[in-house]
Amino acid sequence: MSSKHLIYIILTALLFISCSNDNDTPVAADTNITDSVLIEINKLRATGCKCGADDMPPVPALVSNSILAKTAIDYAHDMNTRDFFSHISPEGISPIQRAATAGYTGKYVGEVIARNYNTPAEVVIGWKNSQDHCKAMMSSTYIEMGTGKSGNIWVVNLGK
Hints:
19% strand, 5-stranded mixed β-sheet
């Protein structure tokens, strides 16, 4: 065997070793998808929309907030791993309590949640078709947001 061939085999083996997962645990699928969801929600906010029977006028665009994004990611992960789906955790913790624990100092926090959507555009349409979620997205009370996704669960935390 030539020395070039031996070096190639060693380098290939090292590549596979360095890319393997030592404990065979899956890589977390929890993600911050704030930017893509923010674009979709701000499209609605810019034009206004109908939430149920109510006409919602245009409102100012939301901006991204990293603390709200972390809160959303963590809560999406919690719902996904513990297999529940609710704005209130099994321990009775609300969205504003979760945000405050993460360091958010705003006075208002709202939340929209969804599951089984594939894209940011689809999930925002789903929320638009739910009167309460639509009104939350269109509320001028909120000025910032963060979004998280884990598995098939989406969470948006809105705040001011």
